[in-house]
Inverse folding.
């Protein structure tokens, strides 16, 4: 006990002593001293946050986006936000018009859902940018610490809160081999008694900026095999996807390091049915039925703290662990990734829909 | 639904598991009704519903009124009386076939040791009055039929109605026309409540007056032999005039019943549901209904069970022949099936006695034939689970609503018929289990 205590106290003493040793520069006590030391003040085009402006952005600003920025004098951004609002509303109306021709809805495919989701995303996004930007002012968010590039080994656990299945616990191992421009990620999701299992292989690349840019475009493919020894079916699926992440700061100065994300996927899936509910067909057995799907995810990503990256997304994906909240809506996905050490991340993912799913994972950089 | 929306807005709160009353719970609750501490009503193939405004009861009548909606062609309404005084219950039945027959039989809900031994040995030989539905009860007499004129004397109100009277003290019971005066306590024999040792276990068992409403479907002759026809309508949504038009069309067809595949209301509001129910009340034959997302407000009941019956059910079609098809209604209004429905699916789809084809009617198809649109089940794994069960059970056909384009495809050997918008689908099922589906405009 005493050895541990001494070691701990010594470490604490060293840790607290270190800054004292490092502080060689005097802290300025006046604005003049600060200016003498190089402080230049806030640039004129980067105003401080405004409480009243933020409230205006919340209230009347919901109907006329950009009111908050307009109040703080940033008229150019206010105009961009207003255009974003109008564009978003236009997309929603266009989606609704396409969907309003029910007999032809089949020919439109995923167009209505894509238009509506993109429109809602743009509408709410421009409003949120107005509110956040006005409250916060020009100070940027923390640097994006999401891990891009490098190899990693992941080990996770998922709990599925879905009343339709009694098999709620899943083990989620994964391996990521990421060169920056190209990555490969085999993964699995296995119920402990092996009655539900999923194996997947993701292969993708970032043709624009690679791992250098936190905002990027990525394309990829996913091969997936699902097996259910509880309900007697198996599937094999191939999915192609396109995803992008864009730092909003490139469009709105006050939203630097606040990114928007979007992912589209199209897949085809072959189903194999067993002779009994406990019978899982072999991987290369004939398919009984083939069907395709489309999925879409839109959201925001930013660092909520210096080493904690947060992603919030609205997801329409019929292949995830739980069903959408209702027949006409989707799921909310929240992902939290904390860089506990340079070589260790703690990941948490929550899906909320008709039921919920919580995944906890550790990612070790190799 | 609202809970889920709030959950979504709260973004990432860990699920919403508040105890909401579901339609399934409402269906279960509607299978029984407690009229007094010692008097209750139990239902098989029927659910408690609200009484029509036009239903009149004699003045100063203290007999309780029970209104039920039939969900099967062979239903039983049991008045279970644990007292001994003479009592009456007025029963009004909705959704009965025009040729439905009403019968009754009194029981003690128990049996003597000697009777149990006889039954175990050779019931049909020594105890010909045994009842197939209640083999371990003691019948107090043979089944008696209420004449048709008496059963249909409900004044201006459609349906069947009667007054059921029981004198448990003397093991007597009978059905009389609705207008019969209810007995008073003084009008019966002396009521002496006996304890089990005094009366014997059997006399202490509850007195049950089982009232059965039965209809038999008559097959039509076709080139392929005898067959049964019915109509599936649905997907009228906001177009209420279309629903009224479809009801008129159905009344011109010679079919014994109608199945509604859902989405006949503009939204789940009480007003929209009442409007839809009024339109369906114009049908001249019984209807059975599963729900679409436009009818339902999430999984909550909002009066759906009361208005339209059980949205998940098995409807056996009695033919008096060596084949008996069934229609399985599966509630997929939420874009999937509930845990309870999934669990019961093997029973729903199991071959009946006598055997016959199974036809499934559900609003949302397991998979959208135009996949990219995603109008099938919300989660593909659940679609696969259902399709695997349908395929293994050899279901003859699945008829869906939801999609606005009519069409048909075969998924894993199961014929899936998409009725389309404002649809009118005529289904014919024959002795060999073959199903022919014709979409009519």
């Amino acid at each position: 006990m005493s050895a541990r205590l001494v070691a701990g106290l010594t470490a604490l003493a060293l840790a607290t002593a270190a800054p004292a040793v490092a502080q060689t520069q005097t802290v300025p006590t006046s604005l003049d001293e600060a200016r003498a030391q190089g402080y230049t003040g806030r640039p004129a085009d980067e105003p401080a946050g405004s409480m009243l402006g933020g409230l205006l952005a919340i209230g009347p600003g919901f109907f006329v986006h950009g009111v908050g920025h307009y109040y703080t004098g940033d008229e150019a951004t206010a105009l961009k936000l207003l255009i974003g609002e109008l564009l978003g509303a236009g997309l929603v109306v266009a989606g609704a018009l396409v969907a309003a021709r029910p007999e032809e809805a089949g020919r439109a495919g995923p167009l209505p859902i894509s238009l509506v989701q993109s429109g809602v995303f743009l509408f709410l996004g421009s409003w949120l940018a107005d509110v956040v930007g006005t409250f916060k002012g020009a100070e940027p968010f923390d640097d994006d610490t999401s891990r891009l590039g490098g190899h990693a080994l992941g080990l996770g656990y998922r709990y599925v809160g879905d009343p339709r299945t009694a098999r709620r616990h899943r083990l989620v191992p994964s391996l990521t081999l990421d060169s920056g421009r190209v990555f490969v990620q085999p993964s699995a999701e296995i119920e402990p008694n092996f009655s539900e299992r999923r194996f997947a292989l993701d292969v993708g690349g970032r043709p624009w900026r690679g791992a250098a840019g936190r905002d990027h475009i990525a394309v990829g493919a996913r091969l997936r095999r699902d097996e259910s020894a509880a309900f007697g079916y198996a599937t094999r699926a191939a999915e192609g996807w396109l995803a992008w992440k864009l730092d909003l700061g490139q469009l709105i100065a006050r939203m630097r390091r606040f990114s928007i994300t979007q992912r589209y996927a199209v897949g085809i899936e072959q189903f194999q049915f067993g002779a009994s509910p406990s019978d899982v067909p072999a991987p290369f057995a004939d398919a009984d039925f083939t069907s395709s799907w489309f999925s879409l995810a839109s959201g925001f990503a930013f660092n909520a703290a210096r080493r904690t990256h947060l992603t919030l997304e609205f997801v329409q994906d019929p292949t995830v662990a739980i069903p959408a909240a209702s027949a006409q809506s989707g799921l909310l996905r929240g992902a939290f990734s904390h860089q506990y050490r340079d070589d260790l991340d703690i990941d948490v993912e929550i899906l909320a829909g008709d039921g919920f799913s919580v995944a906890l994972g550790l990612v070790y950089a190799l | 639904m609202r809970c889920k929306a709030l959950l979504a807005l709260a973004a990432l709160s860990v699920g919403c598991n508040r105890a909401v009353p579901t339609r399934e719970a409402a269906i279960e609750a509607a299978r029984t009704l407690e009229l007094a501490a010692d008097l209750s009503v139990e239902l098989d193939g029927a659910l408690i519903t609200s009484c029509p405004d036009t239903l009149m009861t004699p003045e100063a009548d203290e007999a309780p009124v029970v209104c039920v909606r039939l969900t099967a062609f062979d239903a039983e309404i049991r008045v279970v009386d644990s007292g001994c005084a003479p009592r009456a219950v007025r029963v009004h039945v909705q959704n009965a076939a025009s040729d439905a027959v009403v019968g009754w039989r009194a029981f003690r809900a128990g049996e003597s040791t000697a009777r149990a031994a006889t039954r175990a040995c050779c019931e049909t030989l020594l105890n010909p009055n045994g009842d197939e539905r209640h083999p371990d009860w003691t019948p107090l007499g043979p089944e008696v039929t209420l004449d048709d004129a008496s059963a249909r004397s409900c004044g201006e109100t459609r349906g069947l109605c009667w007054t059921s009277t029981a004198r448990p003290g003397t093991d007597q019971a009978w059905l009389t026309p609705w207008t019969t005066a209810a007995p008073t306590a003084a009008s019966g024999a002396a009521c002496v409540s006996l304890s089990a040792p005094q009366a014997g276990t059997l006399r202490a068992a509850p007195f049950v007056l089982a009232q059965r409403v039965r209809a038999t479907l008559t097959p039509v002759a076709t080139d392929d032999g005898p067959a049964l026809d019915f109509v599936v309508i649905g997907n009228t949504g906001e177009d209420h005039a279309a629903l009224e038009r479809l009801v008129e069309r159905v009344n011109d067809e010679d079919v014994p019943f109608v199945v509604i595949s859902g989405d006949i209301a503009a939204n789940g509001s009480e007003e929209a549901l009442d409007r839809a129910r009024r339109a369906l009340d114009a049908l001249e034959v019984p209807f059975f209904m599963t729900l679409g997302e436009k009818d339902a407000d999430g999984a909550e009941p909002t009066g759906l069970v009361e208005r339209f019956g059980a949205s998940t059910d098995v409807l056996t079609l009695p033919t008096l022949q060596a084949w008996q098809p069934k229609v399985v209604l599966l509630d997929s209004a939420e874009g999937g099936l509930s845990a309870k429905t999934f669990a019961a699916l093997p029973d729903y789809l199991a071959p009946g006695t006598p055997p016959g084809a199974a036809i499934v009617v559900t609003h949302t198809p397991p998979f959208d034939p135009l996949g990219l649109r995603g109008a099938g089940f919300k989660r593909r794994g659940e679609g696969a689970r259902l399709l695997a069960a349908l395929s293994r059970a050899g279901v003859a056909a699945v008829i869906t609503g939801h999609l606005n384009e009519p069409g048909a495809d075969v998924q894993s050997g199961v014929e899936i018929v998409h009725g389309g918008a404002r649809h009118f689908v005529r289904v014919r099922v024959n002795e060999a289990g073959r199903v022919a589906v014709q979409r009519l405009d």
Observations:
- Residues 51-136 of chain A form one domain.
- Helices of chain A lie at 2-22, 31-36, 51-58, 67-71, 75-99, 105-108, 111-136.
